[in-house]
Specification:
With 29 residues, the protein is an all-alpha fold. The chain contains 1 helix and no strands.
């Protein structure tokens, strides 16, 4: 369980980055 705690924030960060990239792509179009 203690090993999954540090992985959660990293995953959310990647998800946020992907969302931002998608939003930028939509704006460009």
């Amino acid at each position: 369980m203690s090993t999954t705690i540090p992985l959660l924030p990293g995953f959310s960060r990647v998800r946020r980055l992907k969302f931002l990239v998608l939003k930028r792509a939509f704006k460009c179009y």
